[in-house]
Amino acid sequence: MKTSAHFDRQSQLLLAVNGLIVLAGALSGTFLNVYLWKSKQDYAMIGWFTVAQQVAVGLTFWIGGKWVKEYNKMNALRAGIVLSGLFYLVVLWIGSDVVRWIWPLGLLLGVSLGIFWLAFNVVYFEVTDRSNRDLFNGWVGLLGSITGIIGPWFSGLLITWLKGDRGYRVIFTISLVIYAIAVMLSFFLKKRKSGGSYRWSEPITQLRAKGSPWRLMAPGLAAQGIREGVFAFLIGLLVFVATNKEAKLGQFTLITSAISLLTYWLAGKWYKPGYRSAGMLLGALLLWIVIFPLLWSTGYSALLVLGIGSAIFMPLYILPMISSGFDLMGTSDEMVEKRVELVVLRELSLMAGRLLGAFAFIVVVMMSKTPLTITIVMLILGASPILSWIFVRKLLRDGSSA
To answer: Which residues span the membrane (predicted)?
Structure first.
């Protein structure tokens, strides 16, 4: 991969803030669903927690878009970090009664994630361009993999060593400290210009406009969200259910993140815009294929095959989706001026898919919780990246997102 010298100071600072946020999430977020599961063994409950998050994320993006566009987007970014810290503070305060507060906690976490990532994505668009966007995304993935190696492994060992709730409370406290550091670092990011008046109905306008590329990108993003809405919480939870050991989940995440470290490094170095269409299709197909071993076993080994396969093939699929979506925001001066609204449209599309996936999962597990049933649901929802490619292939192949 090219060195970070190809980025200016602001890009490097933005990457550092991102790295800290991802580290805090890797330390605590990896075990958050396990913490809920240990209080109440209910897949549907975890699903509803995810639904609450996604509803809050989508609404926060849409409503917060006015703040980010017309006022100080850097304050919005800091507010997201502060609210993330507040979430873990509340979890620490509630303790073992956390399952009684699934919806309020899910909404709080969703608001914190929504306002942070809205501001982050807008600033990310402003500090990158088509020539270095894949590189920046590669570094984001690289940092995510490094923190994914260190964070869950350390958390798993600490939780196992301290035993009981004490380990979780220590990990959640460490995350609070990291969020505080991220807030302080964010003050070195320059205040950025506001972008004029916020158009509340712009997402609908783009979807209704004949010939708008977002009529292809939006359903592609929704299809991406279908898989994310379930796999993001289910894989780690299945590893814990199969082993009943936090240390084993930490080991699983360490292995898969170490492989992601290599694959994102390679993707950042070799993945060019001209490879996006073929690479995305190949990645989508392989991400689906690695689920099939779960038909024969849902033990740790089969889950590790899924985790390793996903770590290898995810960059092929996800980097074109991220980069091409942001490229659409730079196709003209008019689109650049609407970048906040387009970021909102992007997140609302992802939210729609995530909610669809989560609702489908909840409906199924309320009827049957057998390993085979869950595997079949994963196979169906896990095919959604192929649907993403079907929608966006024209944009990728024709260079419409250039």
So the answer is: 12-37, 43-64, 76-95, 101-124, 136-162, 168-189, 225-243, 249-267, 279-296, 302-322, 343-366, 372-392
The pLDDT tens digits of the residues spanning 313-331 come to 998 899 888 888 877 877 7
Assess if residue 312 is contained within a domain. Answer: yes
Place of tokens 């985790």: 307
- Is residue 86 within 8 Å of 108, Cβ to Cβ? yes
Work out how many domains the chain is built from and give that number: 1
Q: Which residues form the domain of 313? A: 8-187+202-397
In a domain, residue 3? The reply is no
Residue from 272, 271, 288 nearest 385 by CA: 288
Does residue 70 lie in a domain region?
A: yes
Separation between Cα atoms, residue 397 and residue 278, nearest integer Å: 9
Q: What is the pTM of this model?
A: 0.84
CA distances from 372 to 292, 293, 380 (A): 11, 11, 12
Q: Is residue 2 in a domain?
A: no
Give Cβ neighbours of residue 102 (< 8 Å, ≥ 6 apart): 36, 45, 48, 49, 52
